[in-house]
Amino acid sequence: MGQYIQNPALWVLLAVILVAVAVVVRQRRAARKLQREIAGLRNHYGELEASYSESVHKAQQQAEGETRSALKSAMRTLQGLAAEQQRIISGLQTKYGDSVILQDLLEIDHMNAQFGRRAQSIAVLCEGWLGRHRDVASVYDVVRSAQGRIRHFQRVQILSKVDFGITSRAVEPVALALSELLDNATSYSSPDTVVEINVRTVPKGVCIVVDDAGVGMNEEEKARAEKLLTSERVTGVSGLGNPPQFGFAVIGVLCERFGFTVSVDSTSPYGGVRAVVLLPDELITSMPEPKEPQEEREPAPAVAPESPMPETGPEPSTLPVSMTADGLPRRRRKRPMTLVSTDQSSSPAPKRSSQETAALMAAFKQGTDAGRATHPDTTERQSGARDASSEGHEVS
Amino acid sequence: MTEPDKQEPETAQLVRSYVITNGRNLPGEDQFSLITLVTASADHQQRPARLSPEEQKLLEMCVGGYLSVAEIAGHTQLPLGVVKILLAALSEGGYLITRPPVERAPLATMEILEEVLNGLRTKFG
């Protein structure tokens, strides 16, 4: 053992070991420190990445929101203008109904409706205003309203009707969605084909079936349409493609908001696309009462108690025109046109007795005869005239 | 409808006139005047279901007897031209019979009147 202690090699070895241990400890400590630093850096990097994507997302959303609100307010203005113009055109159509201008007015009206629809579609995508409140309307009228909003509306034929109405809340969205379907149907089929609409009642509500004889849709288009109609809603106007395809995006948003469904997966018997709009029972109501009979029914009870009288009475023309149960005017025999009657209506007739009148007329007749001073046999005619005039007076 | 609906005093018709007429053109000036009389033809008592509600209403209105175009327009509250287009389509389809207004009697010429007067004078005078 002693000899080992005295061996310098041992000391050298010991020193080397000590140095090595110190170095190892130091290296370990440095490595640990480095590792800690790396972890910190990694965290920091992650945080940075997250905040970066977050801010990008936020900026995207903000930009989209801004676009949306800008478009929304712009479309609101356009929709208002289109609606106002529609009212003015309606007024003009009534005003110039008998003129050849009407033809042009009808065309302008058609253009205006298309313009209004496009503004409405964009507004729907931007979660905007859909349009003015509508009254309950029959399914048939809603379909025709949709028909009027597309360019080639003459190619649309409505083959069947149901006796149901659509609730006032759903009138405008259903009309808009259907007009988008009809627009697709007419634009993707040849101009000489007809687009057929069938309306059917089904256990779940009412179906509006649109069949076209067009080119149909390929798998990709079908998948895109189905995605837009069922799961993936579009917000804003981004992602509509170039050129933008509004149709299914608009319909999808409307379906979600108002609770009806549209499907386009089946093929039409004419080789084109068959689209089916299913309106659930919540959106269906009974047929709306026609407006005009309601207005006409008002005066009818007022006339009814009097109506037996004119049959016997001599003066039917002074009564208001009564209506039959169908709302047709009840024809009465016209009163003979006499100059006497108009004179009497202006004079206070009931105050005079028939004898006074006879005396007056006699005096008038005498005066006339005296002025003429002709044949002596006029006295006979005079009495005849007196009778006639007094009789006529009593009658009225 | 995120924003509350504004109730306008007047709401435009839901179904526009050009849809009711199905884009047809106005009939000729001479075919329908305000006082042309129209009635439903007798051999079409059962109406086809394919007619629009407006056309059916017009037919119903005309079943009772002759009505003038102006009267019909007044009752339907449609623009006069629209009524004319519908009536033209219906009479083309054979559902309606039209009767043009009676032509105004031509004024008698002075010569004839004078001759009559002379004749009367020679006979009774």
From TrEMBL, chain A:
It catalyses: ATP + protein L-histidine = ADP + protein N-phospho-L-histidine. Residues 289-299, 372-396 have a biased composition (Basic and acidic residues). This is histidine kinase. One of its GO terms (cellular component) is plasma membrane. Residues 24-51 form a coiled coil. Residues 174-281 form the Histidine kinase/HSP90-like ATPase domain. Keywords: Coiled coil, Kinase, Membrane, Phosphoprotein, Transferase, Transmembrane, Transmembrane helix. It comes from Streptomyces phyllanthi.
From TrEMBL, chain B:
InterPro entries: DUF742 (IPR007995). It comes from the Bacteria. PANTHER family: DUF742 DOMAIN-CONTAINING PROTEIN (PTHR36221:SF1). This is DUF742 domain-containing protein.
